[in-house]
Structures are given as C-alpha cells and as structure tokens.
C-alpha cells in the first residue's frame, strides 16, 4: 500500500559519542549537535533520528557497535 504523507520513514545514522549533555544524553562528533538518548562517551552507536531542528537533532540508540570505556 501507499504511505500517507504523515507516515515517517525511519532514518538511521552511525556516530561516535564525544561527551554527555546536562541531561546525560550523548553528543556525537558531528557538525550538527545530536542528542542521543542513553548514549555514553566513547560509544560508537547506530541511532534513529527522532526529531530534526535547524541547530540540533534528537535520536535514540538502535545498536551499540563499541561500548564506552566508562562502562
């Protein structure tokens, strides 16, 4: 069937998390800040983008490729 214009197609990205924000969300090394829920510094993760704003994105982990040394 056809997708309605309101259905969102999931978008996935890979990023290395550089540091935590004030709410303990991971911030990867990218030109645009991405708040990744539950990510830790040093992790290499695959994440799904949940929201995209002009200056930042919000995502959630879908897979951890490399765990944080802080674990």
Write up this protein.
- There is one protein chain.
- With 71 residues, the chain is mainly beta.
- Helices cover 0% and strands 52% of the residues.
- The protein contains no helices and five strands.
- The chain has a five-stranded mixed beta sheet with strand order 2-1-4-5-3, with no helix packed on it.
- Strand 4 (44-52) and strand 5 (56-66) form a beta hairpin.
- It is globular, with a radius of gyration of 13 Å.
- The mean pLDDT is 83.
Given the structure, what is the number of helices?
A: 0
How are helices and strands ordered from N to C? EEEEE
* Main sheet makeup: 5 strands, mixed
Residue stretches low in confidence (pLDDT < 50, at least 5 long) are none
Strand residue percentage: over 45%
Quick description:
This protein has 71 residues and is an all-beta fold. It has strands at residues 12-20, 26-28, 33-37, 44-52, 56-66. Strand 4 (44-52) and strand 5 form a beta hairpin.
List the keywords:
0% helix; five-stranded mixed β-sheet; 5 strands; 71 residues; 52% strand; mainly beta; globular
What layout of secondary structure does this protein have?
Blueprint lengths: L11 E9 L5 E3 L4 E5 L6 E9 L3 E11 L5
Parallel strand pairs: 3-5
Antiparallel strand pairs: 1-2, 1-4, 4-5
